[in-house]
Design a protein that fits this description.
The chain is an alpha+beta fold and 376 residues long. It has helices at 7-35, 93-97, 105-134, 151-154, 174-182, 241-264, 276-288, 291-309, 317-330, 336-364, 367-375; strands at 40-55, 61-75, 136-137, 143-146, 162-166, 169-170, 188-195, 198-205, 207-212, 218-223, 226-228, 233-234.
Length: 376
């Protein structure tokens, strides 16, 4: 078992992982806004008091805030960093023409959408480079071994069987099979498989396994109880790199959707949600395993950042996109009062989620257990 990385490495890895992702996200907003002629007052990486920055020839202040938990672009006409409509009566005619909220709704929609899309594009690019270097993980879904006493053994699945689908989802690779099963401990699923050119179907209950990683952290996972006949990384032709990486990112996003839906429906505990402290710890751990492991984590975090920002929560990009969708349908903006209440509610939700994930993070570090022993 590997020891936990030192605090200094955790902090450096956290900044090196999250900083570029926030920059790419905000740069997406900024570049599309510039394309449409929208002016930006501030481009900030981090929140709070400025610790360094400069002003470019267009009047945009590029700065770094002391709290590295996000970033923002404040466009002309924005009231604050969350891009709520501000009072434009004091703006010059030129600035009004360059203001964000003066633009047609479709342009505002694309400017906001560009942030999350940039994060997905970064992840696609990273995986495309991995596929070009190492090949794509495409182990055939053929059973190599069956674990005695497992769900697969009880269902009489045998070595040589080809798993065609599980839970109604096709499994073109063994990686697809594993990613589906691991999120569903104890769930009843239907497995379709091929044996001797005959398609068979069986209903079974996935097993539950507690896995311990190299740093001693434990995770509950679902288990079918089969292993592949061999791990395969197939070479990818140059013209297929981006399409195949895109499909891979879509499947990872689908896995995240599955996990979120399980938490919402109560099939998984909210204690599994991690926050900034957990991200920092994992970033430090992956940094000790080498560049490939760390960059892989950056790609996954980039998908997470893009995905989370698309959720229809006011204060997030998804909340703005929801407002613009309503505006496009009813042909008038959502009232300022409604937007104000929505932003307040969104801020309360985000703060509550941050508090919850921080409590979870501290619990995963054993803080509450130690406090309980001290008090007891």
């Amino acid at each position: 078992m590997l020891s936990q990385p030192p605090v200094w490495l955790i902090l450096i890895a956290f900044v090196c992982a999250l900083g570029p992702l926030v920059f790419i996200h905000e740069l997406g907003h900024y570049l599309v806004a510039r394309w449409f002629g929208v002016g930006a007052e501030t481009f900030s990486i981090g929140f709070g008091r400025e610790i360094g920055g400069w002003t470019d020839k267009r009047g945009t202040r590029w700065k770094v805030g002391w709290l590295p938990l996000g970033g923002y672009v404040k466009f002309i006409g924005d009231e604050h960093a969350a891009s709520a409509p501000g009072d434009i009566s004091n703006l010059s005619l030129e600035d009004r023409e360059r203001s964000f909220h003066h633009r047609p709704v479709w342009q505002r929609f694309l400017i906001v959408l560009a942030g999350p899309v940039s994060n997905f594009l970064l992840a696609i690019l990273i995986f495309a480079v991995f596929f070009a270097t190492f090949g794509a993980p495409r182990s055939p879904p053929i059973v190599g071994e069956v674990q005695p006493g497992s769900a697969a053994a009880v269902a009489q699945i045998q070595p040589g069987d080809r798993i065609m689908s599980i839970g109604g989802r096709e499994t073109p690779t063994f990686e697809d099979l594993r990613s589906f099963a691991v999120l569903r401990p104890g769930e009843k699923v239907t497995v379709q498989y091929e044996r001797a050119q005959q398609v068979r179907e069986v209903r079974l209950t996935l097993g539950t396994d507690i896995e311990k990683d190299r740093f001693g952290q434990t995770f509950k996972r679902g288990l079918l109880g089969v292993s592949p006949a061999g791990i395969v990384f197939e070479p990818v032709p140059p013209l297929r790199l981006i399409p195949d990486a895109t499909v891979y990112v879509v499947r990872l996003t689908q896995t995240m959707l599955d996990a979120l839906w399980q938490i919402i429906t109560g099939r998984r505990s909210v204690k599994e949600l991690g926050g900034p402290l957990k991200i920092a710890q994992v970033a430090g751990q992956q940094a000790t395993l080498g560049l490939v492991a760390f960059v892989s984590l950056v790609a996954l975090l980039s998908i997470n950042l893009g995905f989370i920002n698309l959720l229809p929560v006011p204060m997030l990009d998804g909340g703005h996109l929801l407002f613009y969708g309503i505006e496009a349908v009813q042909r008038r903006p959502v009232s300022p009062r409604a937007q104000d209440w929505a932003f307040r509610g969104g801020l309360a939700f985000i703060l509550a989620l941050l508090l919850l994930t921080t409590v979870n993070d501290l619990g995963s570090f054993g803080v509450w257990e130690r406090l309980g022993r001290l008090i007891g």
